[in-house]
Design goal:
Number of helices: 8
Shape: globular
Helix content: 55-70%
Distance between the termini: 24 Å
Largest sheet: 2 strands, parallel
Length: 179
C-alpha cells in the first residue's frame, strides 16, 4: 500500500466528476451485470486499457487495476456507445504495436509500451474522437485515464489539488489551513 492507493471509491468520485451517477455505489462498479461474452468491452480491450494506465499513471499510485476497471465499467454502462470508440482505439494501438514490435500493446514489456505510445505520437496528438488513430487513442485511452485519475481525490492529492472538480473534499478540508 502506498500513500496514493486508488480505490473503487476514487472511481466513483471520478465518475461523478464526469457527470455520471452510479446506483448502488462503488459495489456496482463491476462487469457482473453482463452475461459471459456479452460485455461491451472484450477482456483484451480492458487489459489493454489497464496496460495504458500502467504506462501513463505515475509510479506512486497503486490499486490501478481495480480503479480503472471500476471506472471503465461505470463509464461504459452509462454510455454504451463509448465502448465502440474505446475498442477502435485499442485496435488502432494494437495495429501500430504489431507493425513496430510484432506484438499487441498488452503483450509488450513496460518500456516498450512507453516507447510505442511515444512513437505513435500520442503525446503530441490532439484528442479527437473522430480523428486519426493516434488522436482517438489520445482521446479514448490516455485522456480518459488521466481525467479519471486526476478527478479522483487520491489523484488530486498526488498533484496537490485537494479538491478536484466534482469532489467537494468534505468538511475536513474547510477546517484545515492551506498546506
Amino acid at each position: 500500500m502506498t500513500d496514493y492507493e486508488l480505490t473503487r471509491r476514487d472511481a466513483l468520485k471520478a465518475l461523478g466528476a464526469a457527470g455520471i451517477t452510479v446506483a448502488g455505489g462503488a459495489a456496482a462498479l463491476t462487469w457482473d451485470g453482463y452475461e459471459e461474452g456479452e460485455t461491451p468491452l472484450s477482456t483484451h480491450d480492458r487489459e489493454t486499457v489497464l496496460a495504458v494506465a500502467d504506462t501513463v499513471y505515475p509510479s506512486e499510485v497503486s490499486g490501478v487495476r481495480e480503479f480503472v476497471d471500476g471506472f471503465l465499467a461505470g463509464r461504459v454502462d452509462a454510455d454504451p456507445d463509448r465502448a465502440g470508440g474505446i475498442s477502435a482505439a485499442v485496435a488502432a494501438l494494437d495495429e501500430y504495436a504489431r507493425e513496430w514490435e510484432d506484438a499487441t500493446f498488452v503483450d509488450l514489456d513496460p518500456e516498450k509500451r512507453d516507447g510505442t505510445l511515444r512513437g505513435f505520437g500520442v503525446a503530441i496528438a490532439d484528442p479527437d474522437p473522430e480523428g486519426d488513430p493516434r488522436e482517438r487513442v489520445r482521446y479514448y485511452l490516455v485522456n480518459e485515464l488521466q481525467f479519471a485519475l486526476y478527478s479522483s481525490p487520491t489523484g488530486g492529492r498526488l498533484v496537490g489539488i485537494e479538491n478536484p472538480q466534482g469532489h467537494p473534499g468534505g468538511t475536513d478540508s474547510y477546517q484545515r489551513p492551506p498546506e
